[in-house]
Design brief:
The complex is a heterodimer. The two termini of chain A are 17 Å apart. Chain A contains five helices and 19 strands. Chain A has a 16-stranded antiparallel β-barrel with strand order 2-4-5-6-7-8-9-10-11-13-14-15-16-17-18-19. The longest helix of chain A has 24 residues. Chain A is of the alpha+beta class. Chain B is an alpha/beta fold. Helix content of chain B is 46%, strand content 11%. In chain B, strand 3, helix 4 and strand 4 form a beta-alpha-beta unit. Classes of the chains: A alpha+beta, B alpha/beta. Strand 1 of chain A pairs antiparallel with strand 2 of chain B.
Chain lengths: 480, 305
């Protein structure tokens, strides 16, 4: 449960309330006495020892100077620092016990880059590509019982380029951090540019508060905040695809707070424009959705870390369009509420993720929608209760190699009036099993093979993917 | 009755004062366990120190665990090796921990790579060379002179953050420096026969030790820094070492044993797991034990055969 922790207790005075109230004069006296004792203990003999040792060291360093090639400057700096230390030690010894506590020498700072490019933001590019064999129609798809939106779909068959992500980030000043992620995707011979994220985040709000404003992945759920290159499988869990249109990402503002406790507790709230599925149409003059989320995390020994969270999203779609493959367009206006419970458990022997690790993650999503439907001029009402769950585990059994298994399942209970119920059939339970194997040559490259098997009204039975993910540029640190 | 009420009130006040005192205790978070040990030496009972990593963890590859965000949130001082060693997780912790006191450049952020002379600063940067560090080799703690530099800087930083304890920090630093200087002289004397000794290392983690003691690091088990050795890369390495005579295969305590064991068997030299922090090996019980154990193990390897 505890971190590697060192807690030092009072040694000199008996422990108790008064120990801390020791007058500062007494403490200073103790300090002086300590210095004096020290000075007496280490005046001449050790200085002589140091001086002879330093002569050897200086001779050795001179030999090293001859051998230096590439790193002249750093090593010369070190030489100077050592000489200075030796000199100051000698001076100290000469000056006698009274000044035996020399101030530390200013050490030579490594040469700093001074060109204008030193202020460039961190730049990285994520390259992704894949080969897919999909048994059944590719591209967009129907999931029986669900009105879909956002980026739901299985992607293209055959060879294709995935999302190429370009990210720039830097501290703007001492108060703000900024990040831009642009995604480029090939679409029917054209390049589609999409602004994934563009936000500022405060760095210096008091009391553990952080404000984020701009466009960002919502803080709800666990998987929602992960960029596609950080997923453990090629595709999103079905629950995210069906209920959140892939991932919830919208313009807005997020306020979060980290509690001042040893156990991690984060609470957050978001006000969103309401443009992204399951919202849509930016109701209430562009204040069409809001969310609340909280998560706690702890550890069991050095090897286990867990995190649990709950989230709630309230959205007011206005004319949210969902098109099924027969060409019918369902325009929905009403309320959409989503609850998410997430649990993640990570295990690595002694916390050493590089050698072996296991990441277990599961989320339960529930969505309740009620409102009016307009299906190409046919009006009706709609009420839906839908659930999605996924359970997945990825196990790195030797360095660089991982295997993963995932199970997905959806349920829907839809009530339609004025519109044929067969247009939104809710008697199926779409399900999927996925298995993957991936290899990471370094933390910057990954090759993945994945097999999906699905049933319960989903088109096609099996799909096989081969995917590469390459990270070029600055190291992006990943969140838990 | 009145007296007992007064006594009770007095006890309550003392209790409150102690609670306030306890809250005044400085909280220090270090990225690596070795710095926690140095903070403990200098800070004594006035600080509470936690290390984000244990000696059994590779500080380059841990996860940005939420519990660490909670630590960052509450810390007054952060001490890290820097030079991008923690780049995979520390930036996330700092952003999510929302603690402006620890921002780079603040007194509460002690970046060790900024106060010690760095070795292995690359002249060209290309990840085809492996996971190289643009600011130099970050494993600075294997040279005890660097530990002394950090102790000096810590006395200053702790004193600036907690002025009422400045004298105590200085006194503890002086006490530590005296013991440390004597220990360095002892280590350098004992290690004199190690000068020129050739070793093979798992990762380029020993540049500062090699530089300090005059060892010669002739090859790494990793084909490139950060790329784990494979069966074929090890076989190639064995071929390249045919004409050399390394005396030991050296790894950090958290690095896997198998590659060094494989090579040491074929070279008939000992495989050593050397400590880089207290607790990394059973013999390295404190900072002094770390270097005692390093030198003991190297001397034993040198006289083996």
């Amino acid at each position: 449960m505890r971190l590697h922790s060192v807690r030092v207790r009072a040694r000199v005075l008996p422990p108790g309330p008064l120990a801390r109230r020791q007058p500062s004069g007494l403490r200073r006296l103790r300090g002086w006495l300590g210095s004096l004792a020290l000075a007496l203990a280490c005046s001449n003999p050790s200085a002589a020892l140091a001086a002879s040792g330093e002569e050897d060291a200086i001779a050795a360093l001179r030999r090293d100077v001859a051998a230096m090639r590439a790193d002249y400057e750093a090593r010369i700096a070190q030489l100077e620092a050592r000489l200075a230390t030796a000199e100051s030690a000698l001076q100290t010894a000469a000056a006698g016990p009274a000044s035996a506590a020399p101030e530390p020498m200013p050490t030579a700072a490594p040469a700093a880059a001074s060109s204008a490019s030193a202020f460039n933001p961190a730049i990285s590019a994520i390259l992704q590509g894949r080969a897919a064999a999909i048994g059944g129609p590719d591209g967009s798809r129907d999931i029986p019982g669900f009105l879909l939106g956002g980026e739901a779909g299985v992607g293209p068959e055959g060879l294709s380029l995935g999302e190429t992500e370009l990210a720039l980030s830097a501290n703007a000043d001492d108060k703000f951090f900024g990040l831009v992620t642009v995604s480029l995707a090939a679409d029917d011979g054209e390049t589609e540019v999409e602004l994934e994220e563009a936000y500022l985040q405060t760095l210096a709000l008091p009391a553990g508060f952080t404000l984020r404003a701009g466009q960002f992945f919502s803080g709800i759920g666990y998987q929602n905040g992960k960029h596609s290159h950080a997923w453990d499988f090629v595709d999103q869990p079905l629950a995210y695809e069906a209920l959140l249109g892939g991932q919830l990402r919208d313009a807005g503002a997020q306020l979060s707070w980290v509690a001042p406790t040893d156990t991690y507790l984060q609470l957050g709230a978001e006000l969103l424009r309401g443009e992204s599925f399951p919202a849509g149409g930016a109701a209430h003059d562009g204040l069409g959705a809001w969310s609340l989320f909280g998560r706690v995390s702890g550890e069991l020994g050095a090897s286990n870390t867990w995190q649990a969270g709950v989230s709630y999203l309230s959205a007011n779609p206005r004319g949210r369009a969902s098109e099924d493959r027969s060409g019918r367009v369902f325009d929905f206006s009403g309320d959409s509420d989503v609850w998410i419970a997430a649990f993640v458990w990570k295990w690595a022997p002694q916390g050493n993720f590089r050698e072996r690790n296991l990441v277990f993650q599961t989320e339960l999503l529930h969505r309740h929608e009620r409102g009016a439907l307009d299906v190409s001029g046919l009006f009706g009402t709609y009420q839906g209760d839908q659930d999605g769950v996924y359970v997945q585990a990825a196990y790195q059994f030797v360095p660089r190699w991982r295997v993963g298994l995932r199970y997905d399942r959806l349920w829907s209970d839809d009530t339609l009036t004025g519109i044929p119920a067969s247009w939104l059939p809710d008697d199926e339970e779409p399900s999927r099993v996925s298995a993957m194997l991936d290899f990471s040559n370094s933390e910057f490259s990954r090759l993945r093979l994945q097999w999906n098997h699905q049933w319960g009204g989903l088109d096609g039975d099996d799909a096989i993917f081969l995917q590469y993910i390459l990270s070029v540029g600055s190291h992006g640190a990943h969140e838990f | 009755m009145r007296a007992s009420i007064l006594r009770g009130a007095g006890a309550l006040l003392a209790c409150l004062a102690s609670a306030v005192g306890a809250r005044a205790e400085l909280r220090v978070l270090t990225c690596e366990p070795v710095w926690a040990a140095v903070v403990q030496e200098i800070g004594g009972e006035r600080v509470r120190v936690d290390s984000a990593t244990t000696p059994q963890q590779d500080p380059h590859y841990i996860q940005a665990k939420p519990s660490l965000i909670a630590r960052v949130r509450q810390a007054d001082l952060l001490v890290c090796s820097g030079a991008d060693l923690e780049v995979g997780w520390l930036p996330v912790l700092l952003r999510q921990g929302a603690n402006a006191r620890l921002a780079a450049g603040q007194p509460g952020n002690l970046d060790v790579s900024k106060i010690v002379p760095m070795l292995d600063v690359p002249t060209s940067l290309d990840r085809a060379q492996g996971d190289i560090h643009p600011y130099g080799n970050p494993h600075v703690e294997t040279d005890p002179h660097n530990i002394a530099r950090v102790a000096d800087e810590l006395a200053k930083r702790l004193g600036a953050l907690d002025p009422s304890g400045a004298a105590s920090y200085r006194a503890r630093r002086d006490d530590f420096a005296a013991r440390w200087t004597a220990a360095i002289a002892r280590w350098e004397q004992r290690a004199a026969p190690l000068r020129g000794m050739e070793i093979v290392t798992h990762h380029v983690a020993w540049a500062y030790l090699v530089h300090w003691l005059g060892l010669v690091d002739i090859a790494q088990l990793e084909p490139k820094p950060g790329i784990p050795p494979s069966a074929s890369s090890l076989a190639q390495l064995l071929g390249r070492l045919a004409s050399r005579h390394p005396r030991a295969v050296v790894r950090l305590a958290y690095e896997p044993e198998r590659p060094s064991a494989w090579l040491s068997e074929r070279l008939s030299v000992p495989a050593l797991a050397l400590p880089h922090a207290p607790g990394a090996t059973p013999a390295a019980k404190d900072l002094f034990g770390v270097f005692d154990d390093v030198i003991d193990q190297l001397l034993r390897a040198r006289s083996a055969r």
